[in-house]
Write a structure and sequence with these properties.
Layout: E1 32-33, E2 38-39, H1 48-61, H2 74-81, H3 85-97, E3 101-103, E4 109-111, H4 130-135, E5 141-142, H5 155-168, H6 183-196, E6 206-209, H7 211-225, E7 230-235, H8 239-247, E8 251-258, E9 261-262, H9 264-270, E10 274-277, H10 291-302, E11 306-310, E12 334-339, E13 351-354, H11 357-371, H12 376-388, H13 390-416, E14 421-423, E15 430-434, H14 442-451, E16 454-455, E17 457-458, E18 470-474, H15 480-497, H16 502-506
Parallel strand pairs: 5-16, 7-8, 7-10, 10-11, 11-12
Antiparallel strand pairs: 1-2, 3-4, 6-13, 8-9, 12-13, 14-15, 15-18, 17-18
Helix pairs in contact: 1-3, 2-3, 5-12, 6-12, 7-8, 7-11, 13-15, 14-15
């Protein structure tokens, strides 16, 4: 921050604003500024600080002062308006307290966040969903789950691999490819799964898909044709995955998840012919399907059930040994889906699907009629990264970065949300926190946090049956500083944004939370049953 702005952000806040001083006697010239065409004559007597802060806030909200723009030095603006420097400093401080500006050393005071606009009505179910709508809302810090460290994308390695691939392509290679996937990538995926997940598969068993989302869509179509109409899902479990199956006109049946994984007895009682699982790192709780449950589940599958294994982020582990994939144990009864969305970037839309032999032809045909196959060039580049060992090097690199950020979030949670219970810290890209015994809705907490510029997912979005309130917090995509600030803001939302009843609610008392004022994103409270959301 420049010397003239020192103390705007970091200085102590006084109990009352500094006194407003009128222009000195004998001064000449108008008391106005070219900056925002500020005219002090428009300010009400005795309310100049409120007026200036309001003008600045309005300019940030309507885009006149976009994120990244710098405010004038407090000394300069005070001189132009012919007011005390303390008046300008106090106005800047108010914006800093709401997270809209921040001091950046000699860079001055900079706009860092605009208040989220009030959204329109929630899109119709066939036009989008809760997560899509939330993703479009601007924010200061995004703690949404499901995104890796996108700044770590190996651009240099990707470009080098792409150049080598292009140099070796013939004109015929630019024609239509194999709908099942480029043979080079299918062979590379088979090798990757053998090395990293213990799965022995022939390249002919691999179908290349546009992420786990498409894998679930293809399976929904094929299972429906096979006479399977009910699929069990974990509860809590991925909202997007569940809705992808429902979009494929399958009925989803929730089955309870506890500290050992899915309740297999509940699965048997559900009458479902198939089950969608995240056994290596359950979403969102982070639990691992334990040995006893695995044996029971494989017994259920051997008797005619079908397991759909979503291995969405199994590579990201920090404090535990690798967990073998179910597909490695019973390939004839397990459909295995994975992707590079959590390893490289969701934008690549590249994944793979392995199915039992009896379903392979039907899945390949469904893929053919869906899109004639994924773009070949990206497949060949990924194959080269896998075969060269570059992808393993990238995985080792991002594991270290993600672990440091996970540790930063754990420290921040201990400091700012000491009453929260943390789940799933040993692996993955997110943490789940619950407020056991609390008397408030997690959608209210998420809305209050969003009003302060921080995005999270309320746990209730990913539940079918009732449960304690909670949040799902992604830590991979932000810096340690952003994580610390975001979690601190959650603490502020708990203490101030949700009212007096919060303390009693956290202690298990009868406290209920009042409305949080203006609904910055009211659809956080909308039941998720009718929206269409895709994850993976």
């Amino acid at each position: 921050m420049s010397r003239s702005n020192e103390g705007v952000i970091q200085g102590s806040k006084t109990d009352r604003p500094p006194p407003e001083r009128p222009p000195t006697e004998g001064s000449t010239g108008p008391s106005g500024s070219d900056f925002l065409q500020l005219d002090l004559g428009q300010a009400p007597p005795g309310g100049r600080t409120d007026w200036l802060a309001g003008r600045l806030r309005a300019a940030i909200a309507d885009g006149t002062l976009p994120v990244g723009s710098r405010l004038p030095a407090s000394r300069v603006l005070a001189a132009e308006l012919r007011v005390s420097r303390g008046l300008v400093t106090e106005a800047y401080q108010r914006l800093a307290e709401t997270g809209q500006v921040r001091g950046r050393g000699r860079g001055g005071t900079v706009v860092v966040a605009a208040p989220p606009p009030s959204p329109g009505p929630m899109p119709a179910p066939d036009r989008g969903g809760l997560v899509d709508a939330l993703r479009a809302v601007p924010c200061r810090i995004d703690l949404s789950p499901g995104v890796p460290d996108l700044t770590a994308f190996p651009r240099t390695a990707w470009l080098q691999a792409e150049r080598r691939v292009l140099a070796g392509l013939t004109p015929a290679d630019f024609g239509y490819g194999n709908p099942q996937g480029a043979p080079a990538l299918r062979a590379a995926v088979a090798g990757w799964l053998a090395r990293n997940r213990g799965i022995r598969a022939d390249p002919d068993e691999v179908v290349i898909v546009a992420g786990v989302a498409q894998a679930l869509g293809l399976l929904a179509q094929v299972l429906r044709e096979e006479g399977v109409h009910r699929v069990a899902v974990e509860d809590p479990g991925s909202l997007g995955a569940r809705q992808q199956l429902e979009y494929g006109r399958l009925e989803t049946v929730p089955v309870r998840v506890d500290e050992a994984g899915i309740d297999v007895a509940g699965l048997r009682a559900s009458g479902a012919g198939a089950v969608l699982l995240t056994p290596a790192h359950q979403f969102p709780t982070g639990v691992v399907l334990d040995g006893g449950r695995r044996r029971d589940l494989l017994g259920w599958a051997a008797a005619g059930g079908l397991v759909i294994e979503d291995d969405y982020d199994a590579e990201h582990r920090y404090d535990r040994a690798p967990v073998p994939a179910l597909r490695a144990l019973l390939p004839e009864a397990v459909c295995y889906a994975g992707s590079v969305s959590k390893l490289l970037a969701p934008a690549l839309r590249l994944g793979w699907l392995l199915v039992p032999p009896r379903l392979r032809d039907a899945v390949t045909a469904a893929k053919r009629y869906a899109d004639l196959g994924n773009p070949v060039l990206a497949q060949l580049v990924l194959a080269r990264l896998m075969d060269s060992g570059e992808l393993e090097r990238h995985l080792r690199h991002v594991r270290r970065r993600h672990r440091r950020r996970r540790d930063a979030m754990l420290r921040a949670l201990a400091e700012h949300l000491p009453g929260a219970r943390v789940h799933g810290a040993a692996a993955g890209l997110h943490l789940m926190v619950t407020f056991d015994g609390a008397g408030f809705e997690d959608t209210a907490l998420a809305s209050a946090a969003l009003a302060l510029g921080v995005k999270t997912h309320p746990l209730s979005w990913h539940r079918v049956r009732p449960g304690p309130p909670g949040l799902i917090l992604g830590y991979a995509a932000g810096s340690a500083g952003e994580i610390e600030e975001g979690v601190a803001t959650l603490g502020t939302a708990l203490r101030e944004g949700l009212g007096e009843g919060l303390g009693e609610g956290l202690r298990g008392g009868p406290g209920r939370l009042p409305e949080t004022g203006r609904k910055v994103f009211p659809d956080l409270r909308q039941p998720p049953g009718g929206s269409r959301v895709v994850r993976g």
